[in-house]
Structures are given as structure tokens and as C-alpha cells.
Amino acid sequence: MRIVLVGPPGAGKGTQATRLAEKLRIPHISTGDLFRANISRQTELGKLAKSYMDAGDLVPDEVTIAMAKDRMAQPDAENGFLLDGFPRNVSQAEALDELLKSEGIKLDAVLDLEAPEDEVVKRIAGRRVCRKDSAHVFHVTYSPPKQEGVCDVCGGELYQRDDDSEETVRTRLEVYHTQTEPIIDYYRAQGLVVTISAMGPVDEVTGRALEALKSGQ
Ligand code: AP5
Ligand code: MG
Question: What is the pLDDT of residues 120-146, one digit of tens each?
Fold first, then answer.
């Protein structure tokens, strides 16, 4: 399956993507995680991305699209992928469409995770991610690690993302509404959008997502 996951910051895209990717046996491709990996390796791309991410703004399309294309070209993505955080505006969606068209393939669904703003703010405030791999995500109250400050998956140190400060979250939410939400209409016109509530326990949301993907609604 080829799926795009969309939803406001903190809705649980990364949390759900990890589980869905495992169940559906497709790679989880998160542009946010790819940028954070570049930041920790101190690459040129990481340095560029950090200045935008810390401000809560989108990283320029040119570098983002090139990075996403590169990742989608890896052999593990040949038969499907779950995109988390990409595309994030209409021009990225158009670039993705062009790429898929050139390869004669299509998206199967765009899974839209809905969560109210007060909930996403609470989720982000308590989020802790792993320094070694930001796809390993915890929450101080909702999904605490077994040992405080230590990643259950790989033993890495847990920290609060630099862009999870109150001020940056406000900008990220605004950017989501103005730049990312329009892609939902873009994909709705293609009949691809499946909207589910992201509220409730993590496993329940995963079950809801799998059901919705199966029935296409
Ligand atoms: P990115 O890393 O994609 O951040 P985001 O979209 O803002 O989303 P988050 O990762 O904050 O939230 P999430 O929905 O994944 O929630 P999570 O599962 O962690 O992007 C960061 C930045 O990179 C962007 O601002 C931009 O600068 C740049 N960027 C990335 N992609 C780009 C692109 N395509 N173009 C340009 N720039 C790009 O969950 C949140 C918390 O809630 C966790 O603590 C989790 O444990 C908890 N939680 C999850 N589910 C539940 C539940 N059901 N109940 C209770 N708690 C829950
Ligand atoms: Mg995420």
C-alpha cells in the first residue's frame, strides 16, 4: 500500500505510523525524522533544516522534495510506503503526484488524523523522543518509558524536541492550517481521503486506522 498520513503536529502521526508500517509491512518514511537524523549527523542539510524547524516553518520545498524522493527510491519502498509529514503543502503534493505518475503508480489512501488543538498541545508538551532515533516516541504521562529518560527500544537518551516549545508549537499549528490543510482538499478531489479521530488510546486509534484503510472510508 502507498499511504500518506496527514494531521496537525502532535496528533500522533509518528506514533501511528510506526504501528501501521509494521502491520502493513511497509517502511515508515518521516521527513521530520529524516531531517532530525541529518541534524544529529551535522550534515549541511541538517544545518539548513534546523533553522527552519526551530522557527516552526517548513523547510524549503526543493531540498525537502529531493530528500523524500531519495528515500522513496530505496529498495524497501518499492512495493509501498507510509509517508508521515510529506507532502506538507500543495506544491509538494503535486511533486509527489508527478513522481508517482512517472513510475506508473498511485497512492491508495490519505489517512487524515483529527485531534482538537487542546489535545495536541498536551501531547506535544509531554512528548519525549530518543536522541538516537526520533521515531522512538514517548509521553511522560500517556506512554511513559519503563525507565525515566531512557528509550525502551534502544536505550538512547530521551529529550524534548527543540521545536516543542510553546511559541514554536503555535507557529507550527498556524503553518499546518495555512499550508498543510489545503492538501486534504487536494486529495479529496482525487477521492483518497479517509478521516479518523485520533482521540483515545493509541491501540484504539491504530485499530480505527486499519479498519478505515480496509473499507476506504
Ligand atoms: P514533524 O517531525 O513531521 O512534526 P509535526 O508534523 O509537527 O508532527 P509531530 O511529529 O510533532 O507530531 P506527530 O503527529 O508525529 O505526533 P507523535 O506521534 O509524536 O516535522 C517537524 C518539522 O520538520 C516541521 O515543522 C518542518 O520544519 C520540518 N518538516 C518536516 N517535514 C517537512 C516537509 N514535508 N516540508 C517542509 N518541512 C518539513 O505524538 C505526539 C505525542 O503524543 C507523543 O508524546 C505521543 O506519545 C503522544 N500520543 C500519540 N498518540 C497518543 C494517543 N492516542 N493518546 C495519548 N497520547 C498520544
Ligand atoms: Mg512526528
Answer: 999 999 999 999 999 999 999 999 999
Q: Give the closest residue to 53 by CA, choosing from 94, 82, 17, 85.
A: 85
User: For residue 13, how far is its CA from the centre of ligand 2 (angstroms)?
Assistant: 5
pTM for the predicted model, two decimal places: 0.97
64 lines ligand 1 (CB under 6 A): yes
Q: Considering every ligand atom shown, identify the ligand nearest to the alpha carbon of residue 183 and give its number.
A: 1
Return the C-alpha cell found at 178.
495555512
The Å distance, Cα 75 to ligand 1 centre, comes to 25
pLDDT category at 215 given cuts 50, 70, 90 is confident
pLDDT on residue 217? 55
Active site members: 13, 88, 127, 161, 172
The answer to whether residue 181 scores a pLDDT higher than 90 is yes
The DSSP-derived string for 180-195 is ITHHHHHHHTTT-EEE
Q: Which domains does the chain have, with CATH numbers?
A: 2-27+74-215 (3.40.50.300)
What residue numbers does the annotated binding site for AMP cover? 31, 36, 57-59, 85-88, 92, 161, 172
Q: How far apart are CA 180 and CA 109, in angstroms?
A: 16
